[in-house]
Write a structure and sequence with these properties.
The protein has four helices and no strands. By secondary structure, it is mostly helical. Helix 1 packs antiparallel against helix 2 and helix 2 runs antiparallel to helix 3. It is elongated, with a radius of gyration of 25 Å.
Length: about 190
């Protein structure tokens, strides 16, 4: 003999999860605060990864598109010239991408000092690798596609990159003081 089935009805306004989402106290509850921080960090990491992948594909697409659209090399020297700048562009872009990945969630658009100073990987040799390798990638790419007039962009780009690097250095010196000064002694540039 079968028993009667119990019919359960849910009211649209009834949250049966046991939590009142309107009354979360993130500021005073350390567990909730930590969960929120981890969730925001994961979201930030995902956004940074997506942005980096999109930038990588757009630059690689541009390189391949322009390289294939150029007139065939008329001389042996022109072929070598293009090959060298293609290799340099890809190398500098790879180092730029590596710097972005190694920086992880510490990558921000405005200079900001986080809890720790990134001193490993490519950052153990270069102080501002994203600025260096991003600019070098652009220069080599413009030479590769033979758009020399676009090199005038560097008149604006280089001072902006220097300004950003100086601001970033100032923020990091204020936050990490002695640790940052030791770091500066160990990097190449």
């Amino acid at each position: 003999m079968r028993g009667k089935r119990k019919t359960v009805r849910y009211d649209d306004n009834d949250d049966d999860d046991g939590y009142d989402s309107d009354n979360y106290d993130y500021e005073n509850n350390p567990v909730l605060k930590e969960r929120r921080k981890r969730r925001q960090q994961r979201r930030s990491e995902l956004y940074q990864l997506i942005l980096t992948i999109l930038q990588a594909f757009s630059i690689l697409y541009s390189i391949s598109y322009y390289f294939l659209q150029l007139e065939p090399s008329k001389t042996y020297q022109q072929l070598i010239f293009r090959s060298i700048f293609l290799i340099l562009t890809i190398s500098f872009f790879s180092l730029w991408l590596l710097a972005r990945v190694q920086l992880g969630t510490f990558l921000t658009f405005r200079p900001k000092a986080h809890e720790t100073l990134v001193t490993t990987g490519i950052y153990s040799k270069f102080r501002h690798p994203i600025y260096y390798f991003g600019t070098l990638t652009l220069v080599c790419f413009l030479i590769l596609i033979e758009k020399y007039s676009f090199l005038l962009i560097l008149i604006i780009l280089i001072p902006v990159q220097i300004y950003r690097a100086v601001r970033e250095t100032k923020v990091l010196k204020e936050k990490f003081d002695d640790i940052y000064m030791d770091y500066l002694k160990n990097v190449w540039i």
